[in-house]
Amino acid sequence: MNWNEKKIRIAVLDMNEGHFNQGMRCIREIINTWSSHIHTDITLDEFEVRIKEELPDTSYDIYISSGGPGSPLESEGSSWEKKYFNWLINIEEWNSQSELIPKHVFFICHSFQLVCRHYKIGNVCKRKSTSFGVFPMHQLENEHDEIVFNGLNEPFYAVDSRDYQVIEPDYQQLRKLGATILAIEKDRPHVPLERAIMAIRFNEYFIGTQFHPEADAIGMSMYLQRADKKEIIIATHGEAKWQNMLQHLSDPDKILWTYNCILPNFLNNAIKVLALA
Known about the structure:
This protein is α/β, with parallel strands linked by helices. It has helices spanning 23-37, 79-95, 110-119, 171-177, 217-224, 227-237, 239-248, 255-275, and strands spanning 8-14, 42-48, 62-65, 104-108, 123-139, 156-167, 180-185, 197-201, 206-209. The chain is 36% helix and 24% strand. It has a nine-stranded mixed sheet, sandwiched between helices. α2 (79-95) links the parallel β3 and β4 (104-108).
């Protein structure tokens, strides 16, 4: 069956724990815009994971697991996290069966950190200070062929919003999983800290980013001008940097470019599998 002869089913796993955020709005808008561009109907369902412990079944074609607040460490052993990782294992098992159509999953920020901990890919730990703002991301030289990053500049710019990080990658575990580090945060030679991992291709069908590829100028402008967020940026980087971030929001080759590349590329790549089915 050709993919445009069926309604594509997409599940979004909401990891925001009931907190108001712009991320879910942005994910919805990206999916709906993409759907209209390819002239295909979709079913879009959302699942509240951390409070209601809702998880999708394996009837969906594509999954996006959102960012969210709080520690990716303190939830270890919780009821919702056990169900989340059980869902992940179910998708892995589905994808391991060659007679079935594989399902693609994208993990964002908090979800990315959880999955890195689950796979024991590196050290998931608290940062010395909050990272919040628009920052350059650097692709690793040998990973420029990643299809989901197709069309990105080097460096490319993205919204980073986190108190935790993934550092000290276990390369032996990465090789065992068939995983690849795709991008790291900006290299600052004057800062004696290891650079955080910002994107990983976990396997052929799973990919994730520490940054927020869904962030748009509207939502980010609201965040940057909030008193608490403004204070964090100015205290860490200075007022000139805060002003510079605001200016970047309307720059077509900064977060707008990332917004229009990464998740649409992911969705396009996912439906190629459906096209071959």
